Amino acid sequence: MGNKRKTILKLSAAVAGMYLFSFLLVPLYDVFCDITGLNGKVAQSTNAESSISVEGREISLQFISHNNAGMPWVFKPSKKVSKIKTGTLYEATFYAKNTTDKMMTGRAVNSVAPSNAKDYIKKIECFCFAEGIELMPGEEILLPIKMVVDNELPKNIKNIVLSYTIFDSNIEHSITMDHDSDLAGS
Amino acid sequence: MSAVIENHHDDHHHGPAKGLKRWFYTTNHKDIGTLYLWFSFAMFLIGGAMAMIIRAELFQPGMQIVEPEFYNQMITLHGLIMIFGGVMPAFVGLANWLVPMMIGAPDMALPRMNNLSFWILPFAFFILLSSLFMEGGAPNFGWTFYAPLSTTYAPPSTTFFIFSVHIMGASSIMGSINVIVTIMNMRAPGMGLMKMPLFVWSWLITAYLLIAVMPVLAGAVTMMLMDIHFGTSFFNAAGGGDPVLFQHIFWFFGHPEVYIMILPAFGIVSHIIETFSRKQLFGYSSMVWAMLSIAILSFVVWAHHMFTVGMPLAAELFFMWSTMLIAVPTGVKVFNWIATMFRGSITFETPMLFACAFVVLFTLGGFSGLMLAITPADFQYHDTYFVVAHFHYVLVPGAIFSIMAAVYYWIPKWTGNMYDERLGKLHFWLSFVGVNVTFFPQHFIGLAGMPRRVPDYALQFADWNMVSTAGAFLFGFSQVFFLFIVIKTVVGGKKATAQVWEGARGLEWTVDSPAPYHTFTTPPKVS
Lengths: 186, 527
Description:
By secondary structure, chain A is α+β, with helices and mostly antiparallel strands. In chain A, 25% of the residues lie in helices and 36% in strands.
C-alpha cells in the first residue's frame, strides 16, 4: 500500500493550511461584506460627485444613535428625521459630549437599513470613517456627515435609516472588571 | 508499529503489560479504544448530571434550585462536555477498536501518537471542569461561545476554556490523521476502497471533516484569546472588528462538526441493520456517495444557524436551499436502511432495537431540521426550545443511540461475554421512552415560544416542562443501569462465539471472542 510518511505530511499540511485559512477568513469577510453590503456598513465614496445631478424624488432620512454598553458620552443626531431629495448633497451633524473627567477616544460604527439601500448612499465625509474621535474631559463636538443619495435608489425604498453606534475604544478591560465584580457581589 | 514488529521476534510476549502501566504506556489500538470508550462514558455521566441539574431547575417555573449564573454555566458545560467529551471520544474509541480489525490491519498506523491523542484528553477536561471552582465561575456563554459574550463579557476562566479547546482540537486532529493514514495505507490485500466496511468509510470521511474544521475552531479560539489578552479587535466593533464574524467562523466549523457527530453513526447502523436483517446491505455504493455528498454540502450551509443576524435575501435563499439539499442524500440513506430490512429475516436483539429507533427518531430530528431550514419560519423558531428539541433528537436518539447500539453489538467481541439480553432490552425501552418523553414536548413549548437558555419561564410552559423533566430523569437513571449492564458483561456472562451474531459479516467476526491482544499480524486475504 501507499507511503505512510507522505500521507502524514499531506494531512499535516492540510491542518496547517486550514489553521491559516481561519485567519484568512477575517479579511475575506471584510471583502465579502464590502461587495455584498452584508453588514450594512457604508464605506467612503470616491465618486460621490457623480451622483450629484438633477434633483430627484423626496425620501425620508432617519438618523439613530446608540451608545455601546459602558459608553458614557452624550451622542445624538442634531436632527432625527429629515425629508431630503435624492441627487442632492445633504449635510447633517451629530452632537457628542464627553461627560467624564478623563480624556476618551470613541469610535462610531455605522449601519444602514434597508441593507439594499447601501449601494446608493454615497458618503463624502463621515465621522464614522475616523479610527478614533478624541474628546477632552467635558468637551463637546459637532460631528459632520456629507452625503448624496443616488437617483437610482430603488423605487420601493422611501425611508432610509442610518444608525451609528458609539464605542469606547479603550474600555475592554474595565468592562470585564466591572462584570466580575458584579458576579462576585451577587 | 514497534510493538507489532517486536512480537514477531518474541512469541512469548503477546499479552499486555501488567497493572496501571498498561494503560499509561499502551500503544495497542484495542487498549486505547477501551480507554476512549470508558473516558467518554465518564464524560457522558458528568454531562448527564449537569443535564439533570438543568431539568430539575426547569421542573417548575420560578427559581428553585440554582442561581441563574450557575444555570448558565451548566448549559455551557453540558453542551461542551457532551459534544467534545461524550460523543466524539466515543466514536474515536470505536474507530480505534474496529477500524484496524475491519480492514485486516495489525494496529493503527501511528500507535505512539494514538497514545498521546488519548492521554491529553483527560487534562483538557480536567482544565475545563476545574473552571467551575474558579473565581467568577465556569464559562457561561453557551457552547457556541459567541463573541462578545465570550470575550468582552466573559468570566476570567475563559482563558482556561480556550486552552482546553486547543487540547481537545489537537487530540481530534491527531486521532483523525491516525485514522486516515491507517485506512489509506494498511488495508489487507484485496480490500479496495469500495470494498471497505461502511463504518470504515464513515470514519474516513469524518476524519477528513475533522482535519478541515478543527483547525478553524482552533483559529476562532485563538482570535478570542488575542481579543481578550493582546488588545486585538477581531470581534470587537470598537476596534474595527465585527462580532458577526465570530458567528461565521464558528459555524464554518460548527456545521461540519454536526456531521462529524453523525456520520460514524450512519456506518454503525448500516452494519447492525444488515446483520439482524440477515441480508446484504441495500445500495452500498449509494451509501458511500451519500456520505460524501453530505460531507461536502456541510461546508456550504453554515449560515442557516444565523439567519436572524441579518443577511442579503440572496444569501438567505442560498443557505436555505443548500440546507434542504442535504435531505436528499440523507433520504437515500434512510430508504436504503428500510430497503435492507424489507423482506429480511429480522430479529430484534438490543443492538437492532437501538438501530431501528435510530432510523425513526433521527429521521424525525431531520424533519424538524427541515422546518428550521425554512428561512422565514426560522425567524420564529430561532433560539426557542424547538431548536433544542431538534438537535437533541439528532444527537441523543441519533448519535448516542448509535453508540449504545455499537456497544451492545461489539461488546461480545471486546469482552468475550454476551451481555444480558433481558437487561439490554429493558435498558432500550427505558431509554426509548425516556428520550421521547424528554424531548418531544420541547417541540410544543418551542413552537409556543419558550426561549432556550433560560432558567425561568412563563407559566403557560409549565406542564410540558414538568413532563420533559420527568422524562429526563427516567432517561438519566437508565444510563446508570446501562453502566451496570456494561460492567456485568465485562465481569462475566455467557461465552460468545467468534461470529457472535448469525448474520454478522466482516473481518472482525473472523477472530476469536474476546479479540486477541494482537490481531491480523499477517494480513488476511480479502476476495
